[in-house]
Fold this protein.
Amino acid sequence: MAVNLKGKSFLSLKDFTKEELEQILFQGEKVKIEHYSGKDEQSLKGKSIAVIFEKPSTRTRVSFAVAINELGAFPLILETTNMQIKRGETIADTARTLGRYVHGVVARVYSQKTLEELRDYSGIPIINALSDYSHPCQIMGDLLTIKEKKGKLEGIQVAYLGDGNNVANSLLFGCSIFGMHVRVGSPKGYEPIKEVVELSKKFAKNSKGSILITNDPKEAVRGADVVYTDVWASMGQESEHDKRVKLMLSYQINDELLKHADKDNIVMHCLPAHRGEEITDSVIDGSHSIVFDQAENRLHIQKAILSLLI
């Protein structure tokens, strides 16, 4: 039975049940079929969606703008550098105002607290297009991609290598809710935050999945169906770049490390990639890589999220 998500905000996967996330995946599959048949459902015709950026973006900006347009709504793209926030207006006052004008807000921000304020004061659905804490739209698109490639989610073994960042947090939440087995390989001091790991372990216990955090990249990758990575220095961490590269070189996804994964493994990266750092050219351009299928599915899953929430 379909669940009703209308009016709900989408800030973190931990706030959703398995049934609710399954509904989003089902809708993602549906709108992808419609997209390729030329029968896009204009379920948001006549509505306006604000898309706010504090951070630079390529895939998120384009995929959300196209998704909103194909759903029949108007995408209002806003840079915070050109908004009154830059001159000192509070997030709460901005949220109260936007709630009078638009039907929903998509926001790519530095702090999760910004999203929470937008949600608390706007009275309309807020969708997290990336924050310091989580990247839920990315991981829903990834789960759709894994399901397409592997035929299922439950029982799939996923290895994530590198920085325990926002992507790692959301991957832990999403995979543990769906009964997947996640192994995160990170250098000491760069593991995902403790509260995320502990909550993910609770989800995994209920779903018959599992969580392992290790400092050994080979242990993380061993037998994995899916091998996933992200940049080692996220936006705002540029000053730490050289230090992080030295620490994480053994976590690079390369041909040698992939020998420890399942022979039918698929390689994922949320992009943009720093080729030669977290992943080599031979891997990202190789036969196991599905990074551009993964990037495409951001469009379809975001259409699903928008249509269900707004």
Notes: Strands lie at 48-53, 74-79, 104-108, 126-128, 157-161, 181-185, 210-214, 226-229, 266-269.
